[in-house]
Structure formats: C-alpha cells, structure tokens
Specification:
298 residues; alpha+beta; 3 domains; four-stranded mixed beta sheet; 12 helices; 23% strand; elongated
C-alpha cells in the first residue's frame, strides 16, 4: 500500500490543506503541538503514519485509497500505479507510461508525468513525491478493463469500428455494424510514399508531406475515447492529431465535423485542421501549424 501526504489528500479533494487538517483535528485523528501537526492514536488506528523528511522533519501520511465524505474518512476505489498495471500486461512501467502518453492520458513533465483532462475523466489522480517533488499518476483498478488500453494488447479486439468518412464524395452516416460494407464501398486504394493506403488525393499529399518531414505518423488512428471516432493522421511523438476537412459544403459531413471538433475540445487533444486551401500550398501552411505544437520541420 502506498501512502500520500495530507496535502496530497487535500489536493485530491480540492480543498485547502488547512481546512483538511482542521477537519482531521475535529475527528481526533491529528492534533497540533508546538505549531506542528502530529498523529494521534486514533489517527494511527485509521491508517495514518508518520514519515520523516531530512529538510522538513516529521509529517503525516495516509493510505492512498482514502478520502473524506460527510466528515469521515472512507475507503474509495483502489488506486494502482504504473508498475502494477505494467505487471498485469507483462510490460515495464516505463513502456506503459509511453502507451498512456500516446493514448492522451498523461503528458511528460519536467519531473515526471502530468495527467491530462482525459486521464482525469478515467479516474486517474496526479500526486507529487514528498521527497523528490516529482509527479506521478495513480489509476483506479478498473483501468485494467479499459477497452482502449486492452485493445493495444490484443491482436483482435472485439470493438465496434466506426468507418472513416470518404473525403472525395458524400458519405451517409454509417453505423459500426455495417463498417465492413462501408470499407468495401469506399476502399483505401491510393498508396503514399511510405506505403500507407489512403482514401483521397488530399490525404496522399498530407501523408507524403509528413514522410518528407521525417515525422513518424499513423493513418486513421482511433481516438482514445469511448466515442468510436478516427483521426486522419496522428503524430505519436507529440500526441498531435491532424484532420483534413474536404467536404464542408455537404450538410451531413459538416455535422460530423462539428461532432468531431467537440470531442477534440472535450478532451483537450492537440489538433491541426487542414482544408482545401491548405492543401494547395501545404508546404507553406503545415510547417507553421506543426510549429505551434513544438514540431519543427525546417
């Protein structure tokens, strides 16, 4: 069991540390002596422990899976770290964090990993090491069953696939159940320089440009969310998605575009948007858009 400081508990509960200490004092779990908070016998019975820091002296810590509710500390959903999750999937915690980063759940920070808005929506919680100050993220144990995560470790994932929109001709709304029929009707028949098979001339131009820029990229990458949506392109090193809007005059396409943009905003995904005007002078427009996310190609 891991333990976190009282300040970390307060941060998770979104309250002031002073207010939490006052609450714990009212409960009789801590007391103040010589201007320092100390753990009482009752606090020890409830799981509290004392730690010593060479710089700050003694401080109180609590089990990571407790929170305050109606004036009482209670157990909540068990939180597990990257090491435990990695062990479950038989990979290292370092590799797992890279996968989480690609899924858009965490981002690399100077001193560790920082949770994203999407990661928070999945129940992840960010903490800070009391000694080093580095940041790390703990996850509810049900993350082991998350379909976007498990699909990475399964060669065949039984997840409904919503087909991509055909960019060069109007496409009706297609449900996942008939995705195979859609792909037969609008197959990806155009080959790019790096061997990707894409569905429109504009996508060929974009894919070739990314290849010429020496940027590793994926085509038709599923967004790591519950909604079954795919991006046109994905740059994993910076977690940047690229969408080409090629049929904006079509009402159904415009509605789908609106829904996709709302999802990108909902989860704070990094998004580059391209249209027909950009394609005609892509080498002028795409590098500038990439630079906004710290990707320099020239």
């Amino acid at each position: 069991m891991e333990y976190i400081s009282t300040s970390a508990v307060a941060n998770e509960l979104d309250i002031k540390s002073s207010d939490l200490f006052d609450k714990l004092k009212t409960l009789g779990w801590v007391d103040k002596k010589n201007d320092k908070w100390v753990l009482t016998d009752l606090g020890k019975e409830k799981g509290g422990q004392t730690r010593t820091n060479p710089k700050f002296g003694e401080y109180v810590v609590w089990p990571e899976n407790i929170s305050i509710d109606n004036g009482k500390l209670k157990e909540k959903a068990k939180l597990i770290n990257a090491t435990a999750i990695g062990k479950h999937f038989d990979i290292s915690s370092q590799r797992l964090n890279l996968i989480f980063s690609e899924l858009g759940w965490i981002e690399k920070d100077i001193a560790g990993w920082e949770i994203t808005k999407l990661g928070k929506s999945l129940g992840g919680r960010q903490f800070e090491h009391d000694t080093s100050g580095g940041t790390y993220v703990l996850w509810p144990d049900n993350i082991l069953e998350n379909k976007n995560l498990t699909s990475i470790f399964n060669e065949v994932a039984n997840i409904p696939v919503l087909p991509k929109l055909q960019k060069d001709k109007p496409t009706p709304n297609v449900k996942p159940a008939i995705s195979d029929n859609f792909r037969e009707k609008f197959p990806a028949t155009l080959r790019t320089k790096d061997g990707h098979m894409v569905r429109s001339r504009a996508e060929v131009i974009i894919d070739n440009a990314l290849y010429d820029y020496k940027l590793a990229h994926a085509y038709e990458r599923k967004l790591p969310v519950e909604e079954d949506l795919y991006s046109d392109f994905f740059i994993p090193t910076e977690n940047v998605y690229i969408e080409f809007w090629g049929m904006e005059d079509d009402p159904k396409y415009a509605e789908r575009k609106k829904i996709k943009i709302e999802i990108y905003k909902k989860y704070d995904f990094k998004l580059i948007e391209l249209n027909d005007c950009d394609i005609s002078n892509l080498d002028d427009h795409l590098p500038k858009k990439l630079l906004k996310f710290g990707i320099k190609v020239y």
